[in-house]
Amino acid sequence: MNRWKKAGIVFIIIFLVIQIPAFTPEKNNSDEEPVDDITAAYDVPMDILMHLYNACYDCHSNYTKAYPWYYHIQPVSWWMDWHIREGKKELNFSEFAAYAPGKVARKYKEIEEMMEKKAMPLKSYLLVHDEAKLSDDEYRDIAVWAKKMQEDVSAKANAGQQP
Fold it and tell me: For the chain, what are the domain ranges?
């Protein structure tokens, strides 16, 4: 048997072994009540909230609503899990109400900037998630809302008040 055949067989064996469910990361679904969700402490109009749910919450909350069939194929699930963990580390709407006021103001500013640049959701995510695509008006509405919230939070923090 030549070297390439042996390498191919080894690759196939490794690929099949990593498909064992024990190698699939735990899904991003919490059973806990979302007591620190952004809506617990901040005014989020229903239209903005729906945009956030559809375009942001899968990667930026503790609740990814639906995993596609290909999530169960390795190494895809590892890649998706990494994206979700990185997204939550950067911004987690499920824990937003627990952030310190200064961090909240920074996060609102970052949301505004991401929406103005149309940098989120990631292009790779949008390739397979049509429901997450935002229109120009939706990007603008979220940016305007985030700017207003950032200004409100900053003003309250400067006045020594809690949001």
Answer: 3-158
- The token pair that represents 123 in the structure block: 């292009």
DSSP code string of the chain: --HHHHHHHHHHHHHHHTTSGGGSPPPSB--S--TTSHHHHS---HHHHHHHHHHTTTTSSSB-----GGGGSTTHHHHHHHHHHHHHHH--TTSGGGS-HHHHHHHHHHHHHHHHHT--S-HHHHTT-GGG---HHHHHHHHHHHHHHHHHHHHHHHTT---
Can you give the pLDDT at residue 110?
Answer: 97
Amino acid identity at 37:
D
The pLDDT tens digits for 12-71 are: 777 777 777 777 778 888 777 789 999 999 999 999 999 999 999 999 999 998 788 888
105's tokens: 């103001």
pTM of the entire predicted model: 0.83
74 phi and psi angles, rounded to 5 deg: -85, 145
